[in-house]
Amino acid sequence: xxxxxxxxxxxxxxxxxxxxxxxxxxxxxxxxxxxxxxxxxxxxxxxxxxxxxxxxxxxxxxxxxxxxxxxxxxxxxxxxxxxxxxxxxxxxxxxxxxxxxxxxxxxxxxxxxxxxxxxxxxxxxxxxxxxxxxxxxxxxxxxxxxxxxxxx
Length: 152
Hints:
Strands 1-2 form a two-stranded antiparallel sheet. The longest helix is centred in the first third of the chain and has 36 residues. Among the domains are: 36 residues; 39 residues, no CATH class. The chain starts with 6 loop residues before the first helix and ends with a helix. The protein contains 5 helices and 2 strands, in the order H-H-H-E-E-H-H. A hairpin with a 4-residue loop joins strand 1 and strand 2.
């Protein structure tokens, strides 16, 4: 296999420089400049189209009233603004109802008493009981069930 001698071997002096087959720097610079010009032209055209369309839109439709942006109160239930404060107020009202005296219905004579006092009264009087069913009535119901059970 025969080898081709390098230029430096033929002439005896080293060759410096660049590859002549590479991309020309002037062509690459010109391409970059043209590309930047096209991009800037497209940006300018886009801005012009935007301004033109917004001016036509503003001329076509009347200005919005400033009252259009006022907020109406929200319907119930509303969100809590200060939840810890509202919780403290709720607990204070519940404690006052549990541990104090007050009228429920003044016309009927119904009152509210503290819970500790209500427990004491309940312990003294006891719970109300239902009226007992008479033993004869209970026996009659069982005999009726027996007749129906025998008939089946």
